[in-house]
Each structure stands twice: as C-alpha cells, then as structure tokens.
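User: Reviewer 2 asked us to show a designed sequence for the structure in our supplementary figure. I'm pasting the structure tokens here. Could you produce the per-position amino acids so we can include them in the response letter?
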C-alpha cells in the first residue's frame, strides 16, 4: 500500500476494500479469512484444554495450587512479551511471517504437552503457547479492522465468536479424550487439530501492506499510544476485564474440584460460560459501533462485577454454573467493544501495535492475577479472592471511563483515525 493511499482503496490481496470482497455484502466473514479464524479457534481450544484439565494436572503430578497459578501466569506473561515487542511489525509489512511463526509455536506448545510430566515442563509448554498467540492475534485483528472499517465492530465480534467457540468445544473435547485415553491422548489429539488447521495458513497468500503513514524517526508506538487519553481509558477497562480472566484461569477448576465437582461438571461449567460468546460478540461489536465502545464496556463490565462478588459465597454447584452463564453474557459484549475502542482511538500507523498493546495488557493482568489468585485462594479462600477482584474492577472501570469519555459516543462510519 502506498503512503498516500486510503485503506478502503487498497487492492492488495490481503486487505481488499468492501466493494471488492468475495463474500456477499451482508456477510460478516470473508471465506478467505476462515483459515485464520480457525487458528483463533484452535488457540482458544488449547487454552480450554489446559484450563479444564488443571485439576487433573495438579492431582496427577503433585503440583501445588501456587504452581498451578504459575502455569496460568507464565502463558499470559509470554503473550505479553510477544505482543508488546513484536505486534508493531504487522504495521510494517511482516504480517505473513507473524501468522506463520505464531501458528508454528502454538503447534509446538501443544505437542510438548504430550510429554510434560512436571512443573518445569508445563511452564515451558505454556510459554510457547503464549508466544504463538501473541504473534498471531494482533496481526489478524489488524487485517479484520482494515478489511471493512465501517463494520469493524461486527467483524471483531465474529472473530471473538471463533475464539469462544474454541473455548466452548475445548472442555467437552478435553474431558472426552481424557476419559478415553488420559492426558497424553488428549494433548496429542489437540496437537493434531492444530497441525490440520495450520496447513492453509502456511499456504495463505496476500500482500503484506504496511501502514499508510510510517512512524516518524524515533517515534515509538508505545510512547504515542500511552500519550492518548482514550487509549489509557480502554486499557484501564481492559485491566478490569482481565482481572476476572486471570482468576478463572488459575482457580476455577480447583475451586469446583474442592467443592466436590466431577471432571465432567467442571467441563460443563466451562462450556456454559462459553456458550453466550458464540452469538453475543457480534451483537456487542455492532452495538459498540452504534452507541460507543466504552458505553457498551461500562454496561458489560458493570454487570460482571456483581457476579464476581457472589461466586465466593456459593457452595452449591448448579447455582455456580448458572451464575457463570450470566457472567458470560456480559463478557461477550466486553471483548469486541474494547477491541473496537482501541482501534478507533489509535493512529492508523500504529493499529496493530494498539491491538498488541490491548492484548499484552490483558496478558499481563491475567498473568499477575492468575499468580496471585493461586496464593490468595490457598491461604485465604474463595470469598476473599472473588470480593477482592470485584473491588479492583470497580476502581479500574471508574478510572477508565473517566479517561475514555470520547469513546462513549458512536463510532464514525469511516476507517479508524
């Protein structure tokens, strides 16, 4: 793409204008992007496998609750490093390399899960998964936003639906495979699925289109982005959202196991949590474009906070499952609204960097929260953990809405600035 071209006029194979799309005008998903979204699906599938089998890993290999928290934390930490340091290269024309390397690392991480037998090996495999996801995700989001800016919210919601579909399928598939053949069989099957969906990505053909306006000499994307109040507002809301992600990643499976839940019930609750996210993210993205990204985030994060406050006081399994489902409906609106908000607030030349920063912030918060959650749960219990997390979310949401006031209005029917 030349420096003076508008993305809507770009005819490069990877970033075609709306008028030149292969899909019908009312379609939210271009067929050519399906392989990339399927990788998004498998990345989530891998996270869900580990997530739902965490109690089994703890019991089979004698890993403490703090160690389990470390397994969750290191994957998020690796994703943070990857997104912060490497997402900017998608803005500079290296999208293809990022996509291929990312899917390769995801495959290796899942394959090594087959041979993991102690805390150190589980930490290593989670590191590979985090690095791969951190390379792949910002590059895909940039392509989604630029392919049709006027429907970016809906398309980001569609991508979130693929992500959640993987999370939905993961617990059920992991539980079935575990009961059929154990942990090794489950993770070997997962590695095979990743290899299958990776083949089209390795053959994916498109032109790497750099940003219209290259960065000025010495202009670092992080410095530019952190200098914008709307960006800071989105990031504060992102921290609030990912506080719940880190807590769930570290202790949900352990929490239910300690209440006497079977592995099947644990998998069922994770499936119930993911079900609303198959449909509602598209609606959430559409609504965010129509009324304002942070207005939707204020509603959805605000709705998740009472759920967090209640979890620790419930000791009966089925009410916990119902509450998780309600919580998931709110979260399904949060994800696309934050992704659209940071795309709208960021300069175009730093679009992938902004998506990487959003993801990296989430990964960092989830890593710290997951690590801390294991310790708090082990020494203080579930009530203190969930109520403390809810209190943190309230403070962050209020601060984020104050910084991001300009994103409380509808997104203009044009490309991001």
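Assistant: Here is a per-position design you can include in the supplement:
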């Amino acid at each position: 793409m030349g420096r003076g071209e508008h993305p809507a006029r770009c005819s490069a194979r990877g970033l075609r204008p709306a008028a030149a799309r292969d899909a019908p005008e009312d379609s939210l998903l271009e067929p050519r992007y399906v392989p990339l979204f399927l990788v998004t699906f498998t990345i989530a599938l891998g996270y869900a496998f580990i997530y739902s089998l965490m109690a089994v890993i703890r019991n089979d290999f004698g890993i403490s609750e703090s160690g389990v928290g470390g397994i969750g934390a290191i994957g998020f930490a690796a994703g943070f490093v990857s997104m912060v340091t490497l997402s900017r290269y998608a803005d500079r024309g290296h999208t293809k390399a990022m996509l291929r390397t990312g899917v390769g690392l995801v495959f290796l991480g899942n394959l090594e899960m087959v041979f993991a037998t102690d805390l150190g090996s589980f930490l290593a495999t989670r590191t590979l998964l985090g690095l791969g996801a951190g390379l792949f995700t910002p590059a895909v989001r940039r392509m989604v936003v630029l392919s049709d800016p006027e429907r970016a919210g809906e398309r980001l919601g569609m991508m979130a639906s693929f992500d959640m579909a993987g999370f939905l399928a993961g617990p059920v598939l992991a539980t079935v495979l575990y009961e059929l053949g154990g942990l090794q069989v489950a993770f070997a099957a997962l590695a095979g699925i990743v290899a299958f969906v990776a083949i089209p990505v390795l053959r994916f053909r498109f032109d790497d289109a750099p940003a219209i306006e290259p960065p000025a000499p010495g202009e670092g994307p992080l410095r530019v982005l952190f200098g914008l109040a709307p960006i800071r507002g989105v990031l504060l809301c992102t921290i609030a959202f990912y506080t719940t992600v880190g807590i769930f990643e570290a202790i949900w499976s352990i929490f239910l196991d300690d209440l006497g839940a079977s592995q099947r019930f644990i998998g069922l609750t994770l499936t119930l949590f993911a079900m609303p996210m198959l449909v509602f993210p598209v609606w959430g993205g559409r609504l965010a474009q129509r009324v304002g990204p942070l207005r939707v985030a204020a509603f959805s994060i605000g709705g998740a906070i009472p759920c967090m406050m209640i979890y620790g006081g419930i000791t009966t399994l089925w009410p916990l499952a119902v509450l998780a489902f309600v919580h998931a409906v709110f979260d399904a609106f949060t994800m696309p609204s934050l992704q659209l908000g940071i795309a709208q607030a960021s300069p175009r030349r730093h679009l992938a960097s902004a998506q990487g920063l959003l993801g990296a912030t989430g990964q960092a918060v989830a890593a710290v929260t997951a690590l801390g959650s294991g310790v708090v749960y082990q020494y203080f219990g579930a009530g203190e953990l969930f109520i403390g997390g809810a209190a943190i979310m309230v403070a962050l949401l209020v601060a984020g809405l104050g910084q991001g006031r300009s994103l409380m209005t509808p997104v203009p029917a044009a490309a991001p600035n």
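For the response letter, you might also mention the following. Residues 1-26 have pLDDT under 50 and may be disordered. The CA atoms of residues 276 and 407 lie 25 Å apart.
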